[in-house]
Amino acid sequence: MMIFRRTTQILIFVCISLFGFADGGVLFEIGFGKKDDFTFFVKIDDLQKIMEARKILALDEPKVISGKIKTAKADFNPKWNFHFTPSTISFEKPSSADCDFSPKFIERNLNEIELGSIMPYRIWCPKQARLIREVSLQEEDDYEDL
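Now predict its structure.
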């Protein structure tokens, strides 16, 4: 039993070291369109989804990020008053969904989103968004200090 417990502790340490779980997830930068004139970050806290995001980056796969938004500032996304809820994130093939809005549109319409008149379920799937890169832990600390 003691060996099992020690092995579990080692595995947890390795996961924290490799995947950034100590801070609650891994941070990725996403861009919009051909000219990325603003920065938006997404935090992913599920190991399988982190690995999928890394695969998308490595293979440049055409997948759309999707998830429920929370209308509140997040330390990792300081320039915006909303963010993806990490536990709701998924990656889908591009479709003609009615949840395709720019982040600037969402920012301008947060009150209507709060009331449910726009995006009643708060699901956001920006078709023009793409993963740009994984943010290092040092960079992540810098964003949280803003």
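The first helix runs from residue 2 to 19.
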